[in-house]
User: Fold Citrate synthase from Kitasatospora aureofaciens.
Amino acid sequence: QTGLVTLDNGFGNTAAYKSAITFVDGDNGILRYRGYPIEQLAAQGGFIETAYLLINGELPNADQLAEFNREITQHTLLHEDVKRFFQGFPRDAHPMAMLSSVVGALSTFYPESHNPFDAAQRHLSTVRLLAKLPTIAAYAYKKAMGQPFVYPRNDLSYVENFLRMTFAVPAEDYELNPVVVNALDKLLILHADHEQNCSTSTVRLVGSSHANLFASISAGISALWGPLHGGANQAVLEMLESIQKDGGDVDAFITKVKNKEAGVKLMGFGHRVYKAFDPRAAQVKLLAHEVLGQLGKSDELLEIALKLEEHALKDDFFISRKLYPNVDFYTGLIYRAMGFPTSMFTVLFALGRLPGWIAHWHEMINDPTSRIGRPRQIYTGTAIRDYVELDQR
Ligand code: SDX
Assistant:
């Protein structure tokens, strides 16, 4: 099939997409965006630069980066009518529900964006989404807090703007903390793409019907919400808090996991592709120690997480199943230290993953051989039979 190749995984062929965006080697813990190792991008790059790389295929030069930042900055405001959507949500609405609803609704403000084959409109939708998702995310937080929305400012960087729109309140000045700004920029880079994961494949499948970019990204946000995928970072914190409530008894929890009590899993562990280690997990673990140290925050939950990891890495139940920490295991501890509630953790994952979703959508739409996604099935239902009248049943 065009756009799909069959890879023999030893258990019969598995159809797979062809893509030039991200390379993952699950056995050796390798992750590269457009050929650049994630470790170098996280250490030396910036999130908007990484977004440009994923979407355009090359690192931007100084002029290209300045222009990309300028374009994004010009589009950070939301139409005033969009704010009314937030008034309709219940106070305790989950921010991921608000994110996917408002992103889908954005397409109603830009009917000209509905034609995926208009290159200028594709670029404008790309810039609008990158610019407005942080504003939507911050407004979702303000809705939950019952605080007034804070408008974006054009003199701030992407991450600075998001942090100020989220945490600033009219009653006092908001002071940006460079430790938080730098750490969040790095975390967004680490989440920016991961080849054909559940949410990215969702974006590609929805986009393959030639639905517009806003509709495709809204679907990707919904897929990411699941606790087995992006929702895991929230589930990890809830798991650590439940262990803390049980007096920090890590061994008792590990026993529950091994006995598969009520489907209890070690959240933040395991991966469909990484069967050695997730290179992002190592980066995030280092960052957790750095940020918590620089913010002067000791966190009992970090101690519990370290004990869980130490125990699991020695236990045959996890080793035999090739279960190692994934990107979600430590991220929540950093987000919590930054002041985010657990309900916002997956929203932060979405902010990071947005350029990857967009890059894959473009790659598919620009592929002249790409066709509508249509998975086939093996029918396991009843064989043919004749209708039975009601009084015969
Ligand atoms: C992300 O695909 C991507 O790239 C995703 C992602 C990205 O960047 O987009 O990397 C982001 O989603 C990371 C994963 C976050 N999810 C979690 O941390 C949730 C906990 N993890 C699991 O639910 C699970 O490991 C998955 C969903 C991540 C992977 O599932 P698989 O590969 O389908 O593994 P499986 O369900 O077939 O499990 C194999 C065995 C089973 O036991 P047995 O039936 O052999 O006895 O391992 C067990 C599972 O029960 N198992 C776990 C476990 N994960 C798998 N047991 C306990 N704890 C776990 N975390």
The mean pLDDT is 94. The pocket of s-citryldethia Coenzyme A is lined by residues 194, 197, 228-229, 232, 257, 265-273, 321, 323, 326-328 (CB under 6 Å). The first helix runs from residue 38 to 44.
